[in-house]
Amino acid sequence: MTVYNDEEIFETELHRIFGQCWMFIGHETEVPEPGDYAKRYIGKDPFIFIRGEDGQIRVLFDSCTHHGSQLCKAEQGNSSHFRCPYHGWTFKNTGDLAGIPLRDQAFEGLDPDEWGLHEAPRVENYKGLVFASIADEGPSLEEYLGDFKWYLDVHLDIAKGGMEVIGEPHRWRADSDWKSGSDNFSADSYHTGVAHRSVFEVGFGDEDISGTAGQETQRHVTHADSGSTSLRLLDPEEEIFFGYPEEYITDENLSDEQYEVAAACGAATGTIFPNLSFIHLAATNDPDKPLDGFFSLRQWQPVAPGEMEAWSWVLVPAEASEEYKQRAYDVALGTFSPSGNFEQDDFAVWDGIAEAAGTVFADKQDVQMNYQMGMPGIGKAEIDEDWDGPGTAWDDNLEEGTCRTFHGNWQKAMNGEEVGMRYPRDHI
Question: How confident is the model over 361-388, as pLDDT tens digits?
Fold first, then answer.
């Protein structure tokens, strides 16, 4: 239990997980024009997510190469250059060093080509999702994502024109460990009927869609390399498509099996190791209004042992009407945002995990947490041998192999091993 609030473990995570794995930086639609930028973080390290004048997206370390001062003070904007507030060194939005005050006198012999801003050594784009790794070597992003791409594609390719971000990411601090968010969205369906009970009672959610535990149509998919997911399925003939109007849907880039999953899915959650989660959901912010769909990416940023900053992006079909985009954004705001009905329920319990994990008693007694649901002899969930997608699919959501997938990858990364949980049928 102490892994949720321990200084030594936290520092090790920063190096072995956030210093090695592929980390989500942002969506390409956040920086559509040359000079567009936003401040982002890999672990606790500050970076500038930017599209340069040459059109290339970069992830630049936010530190002047002279005496190290941070350059970027605004959270986002558009700029052709960044000027250091300490000594005035100026850098282009490509990272190149462009100007040095009193250069002829102070730095006459300096080669400016050698003193541009440092960049994340590896940056890759997967269907609009930009990831970076500060490790010089390792698997490519596609290799890292592995079989989980099959499920990620269902969310990214179902809409005509793809998905786009609307608005800025919401951000808020919480006295919770970053692993609590990743664990919950990986997915923990067991909590839905308890922690979110009041949301259903007042009519803000549909229990069939939202995944109350024990429903036979639900599927948990575990051990899909970098991630796991919960799919809240209905009758495929209803073609709910996460709540989107039919005119925004396409089957152009999906297999028949992927399209069938999307057609039947009213909601899905999942986590890509280590700290990128998502929820794709048909919901409402008003019991008197119909359900509408939105896609939210969430990132659980480490701040300190037992403390994190939650980030949440809202994505919608790029070719949807402006009216629908605004409606989807409003629904996201009312459900999964700092003031959202569902969001508040989760954060009201996660802080108690971190508090208990940081106690002397938990340390001295080596208090363990229970993730046995779905293991042999525990519960009634069984593997769905007829499932068409990759990973290990379970015939209902009363199991915790999804969470064990996340923690298995955590253990691998902390031991210096390559991330990737792959169908260990004898250790599920």
Answer: 999 999 999 999 999 899 889 999 999 9
Name beta bridge partners: 76.
Answer: 38
**Structure confidence by residue, pLDDT tens digits, 192-235:** 777 666 666 665 555 566 555 556 678 999 999 999 999 999 87
* CA 101 centroid distance within chain: 41
The yes-or-no verdict on residue 426 having pLDDT over 50 is no
Helix axes 149-157, 256-264, angle to 10 degrees: 70
DSSP H or E segment with residue 330: helix 322-335
List all residues 6 or more positions away from 212 whose beta carbon is below 8 Å from its beta carbon: 189, 192, 193, 200
Q: Is the peptide bond before 305 cis (omega within 30 degrees of 0)?
A: no
Helix (H) or strand (E) holding 130: strand 129-133
Residues 212 and 398 sit within 8 Å (Cβ to Cβ): no
Element holding 181 (H helix, E strand):
helix 178-185
Q: What is the spatial distance between Cα 354 and Cα 178, in angstroms, rounded to a whole number?
A: 10
Which residue's entry shows tokens 């002047």?
64
Q: Is the pTM value of this prediction over 0.70?
A: yes
What's the rounded Cα separation, in Å, for the pair 72 and 385?
52
The candidate with the shortest Cα–Cα distance to 204, out of 191, 188, 216, 192, is 192
**Residue 218: is it exposed, middle or buried by C-beta count within 10 angstroms (0-12/13-18/19+)?**
buried
**Which of 190, 142, 220 shows the shortest CA–CA distance to 402?**
220
Q: What angle do CA 374, 378, 379 make, to 5 degrees?
A: 70
φ, ψ dihedrals at 423, nearest 5°: 40, 50
Angle at 385 between CA 380 and CA 389, to 5 degrees: 115
| 52 φ/ψ sector (left φ>0, alpha ψ -120 to 50, else beta) | beta
Query: d(Cα 401, Cα 393) in Å, to the nearest integer?
Result: 10
Which residue from 271, 280, 279 is spatially nearest to 300, judged by alpha carbons?
Answer: 271
Rounded to an integer, what distance in angstroms lies between the CA atom of residue 62 and that of residue 145? 27
